[in-house]
């Protein structure tokens, strides 16, 4: 039995649908469906009840899942222990950070390096959905990302919703609002909005919220990184945007107003995420406990 098909099967069971599993695995749905058909043909029995809206494993599917998870966890642990033996003189932690929260999590990375100077920290920066995939594939140990859509496979430390701010060109709005600006008011401006590289996310939630006030929304650009939006605005793009407050430095935006958004939707929820049910590096477990301690003290 092919290990890759086995891992695909377990992911589908955990996610509840092929579409969600395909997003986590960072692959298209048709080849994933084909792999499952091949697995069912190899076993000679259906593994899912397809009469319901969600994919529900059959009795045979439940049995396969329980045993496949044990096999995959054993393989992952063997690989991990082998890596630990190979690098026992040097501790390494692999962290993925979402583009959305580079500034927000930079202080955590700094505190981590100060607390554990003996550890080499390897950092990857990518879209939250891609970092979920890297976690599932055990390519990174911890992800600092937007709240995952499906949390069953993960342990999470939730930071709480991030404050949402609007950045508006002064040429479009000469006088800065005294306290805040409404989403309804923002529908009058050309917008540059964050949009993840793959799949649905904050963009769709925000567009739905804006459509409550206007049928036509003038989105002139969709960008996956807050840093690029800020750079474009520094170059003089005349538009408005909505960003997590942690990623905006108003002192550097001379020709723009930075304003709190009144009654904002809960768009940006930073989290520390790791795979659940993984016997991992003791150092990673220690860092996780330290993260929980920081969260409880509100000093993340």
Automatic annotation (TrEMBL):
GO terms for cellular component: cytosol. Residues 1-58 form the HTH lysR-type domain. The lineage of its organism: Bacteria, Pseudomonadati, Pseudomonadota, Gammaproteobacteria, Enterobacterales. InterPro entries: HTH-type_LysR_regulators, LysR_HTH_N, LysR_subst-bd, WH-like_DNA-bd_sf, WH_DNA-bd_sf. GO terms for molecular function: DNA binding; DNA-binding transcription factor activity. Keywords: DNA-binding, Repressor, Transcription, Transcription regulation. PANTHER family: HTH-TYPE TRANSCRIPTIONAL REGULATOR YBHD (PTHR30419), NITROGEN ASSIMILATION TRANSCRIPTIONAL ACTIVATOR-RELATED (PTHR30419:SF8). It comes from Rouxiella badensis. Pfam families: HTH_1, LysR_substrate. The keyword Transmembrane helix does not apply. The keyword Repressor applies. This is HTH lysR-type domain-containing protein. Belongs to the LysR transcriptional regulatory family.
């Amino acid at each position: 039995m092919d290990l890759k098909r086995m891992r695909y099967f377990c992911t589908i069971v955990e996610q509840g649908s092929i579409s969600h599993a395909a997003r986590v695995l960072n692959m298209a749905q048709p080849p994933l469906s084909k792999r499952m058909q091949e697995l069912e043909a190899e076993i000679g029995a259906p593994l899912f009840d397809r009469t319901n809206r969600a994919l529900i494993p059959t009795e045979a599917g439940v049995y396969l899942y329980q045993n496949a998870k044990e096999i995959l966890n054993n393989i992952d642990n063997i690989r991990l222990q082998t890596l630990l033996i190979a690098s026992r003189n040097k501790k390494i932690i692999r962290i993925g950070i979402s583009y959305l929260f580079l500034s927000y999590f930079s202080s955590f990375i700094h505190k981590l390096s100060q607390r554990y100077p003996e550890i080499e920290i390897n950092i990857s920066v990518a879209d939250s959905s891609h970092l979920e995939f890297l976690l599932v594939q055990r390519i990174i140990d911890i992800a600092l990302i937007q709240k995952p859509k499906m949390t069953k496979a993960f342990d999470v430390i939730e930071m709480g919703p991030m404050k949402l701010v609007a950045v508006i060109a002064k040429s479009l709005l000469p006088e800065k609002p005294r306290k805040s600006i409404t989403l309804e008011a923002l529908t009058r401006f050309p917008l540059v909005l964050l949009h993840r590289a793959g799949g649905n996310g904050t963009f769709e939630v925000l567009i739905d919220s804006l459509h409550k006030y206007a049928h036509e929304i003038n989105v002139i650009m969709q960008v996956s990184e807050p840093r690029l939006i800020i750079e474009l605005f520094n170059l003089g793009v005349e538009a408005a945007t909505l960003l997590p407050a942690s990623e905006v430095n108003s002192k550097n935006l001379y020709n723009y107003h930075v304003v709190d958004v009144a009654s904002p939707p809960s768009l940006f929820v930073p989290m520390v995420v790791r795979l659940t049910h993984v016997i991992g590096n003791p150092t990673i477990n220690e860092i996780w406990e330290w993260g929980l301690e920081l969260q409880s003290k509100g000093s993340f």
